[in-house]
Structures are given as structure tokens and as C-alpha cells.
Amino acid sequence: MSATEPRIPRVRLTERGPVLVDGPVEVVLPDGTAMHCDRPVVALCTCRRSRRFPFCDTSHRRRRP
Q1: Which residues form the Iron-binding zinc finger CDGSH type domain (predicted)?
Q2: How high is the pLDDT of residue 59?
Q3: Are 9 and 21 in contact (CB under 8 A)?
Q4: What is the C-alpha R_g of the chain?
Q5: Among 35, 37, 34, which residue's Cα sits nearest to residue 22?
Q6: Which of 6, 12, 17, 25 has its CA 20 to 30 A from that of 46?
Q7: Which of 1-5, 8-12, 45-49, 50-54 has the lowest mean pLDDT?
Q8: Which structural domain, as residue segments, surrounds residue 35?
């Protein structure tokens, strides 16, 4: 990819965990709040158990079936 071509964001769905997004990203919450993350890969919580929601803190690992 050349410097003039736009970067195509990559989103990866995981089996039992977060959605992984190539960063940096800006996440807009339902209330309109925007959160920015500069990490090269950002894990977004899908279980809503994270204390850092919308970012994953691995709380899904403590879930019992």
C-alpha cells in the first residue's frame, strides 16, 4: 500500500472474546461520547462486563457457562 492509498481498517471477530480492530481508532458510544485509542490493535468488549467498556479488560474470561 502506498502513502497515497487510504488505509482499509481490519476488524476481526473472535470466537468467545472481543472484536479486534486495527488501530488507532475512535469509538463513538450511543450517548455521542467519543473515545480515542492509539494502540495498534484495539480490543472492543462484546460481553459488556468490562470495567473499561467499550474496551475489553478480559472480563469475559471469568464468565462461567
Answers
A1: 22-65
A2: 84
A3: yes
A4: 14
A5: 37
A6: 6
A7: 1-5
A8: 11-60
Q: What is the mean pLDDT of the chain?
A: 88
Residue listed under C-alpha cell 469509538: 27
C-alpha cell recorded at residue 63? 464468565
DSSP 65: -
Tell me whether residue 44 is in a domain.
yes
Number of domains in the chain: 1
Query: What is the secondary structure of 2-62 as a DSSP string?
Result: -TTSPPPP-EEE-SSSPEEEESSEEEE-TTS-EEEE--SEEEEPSSS--TTTTB--SGGGG
pLDDT at 40: 95
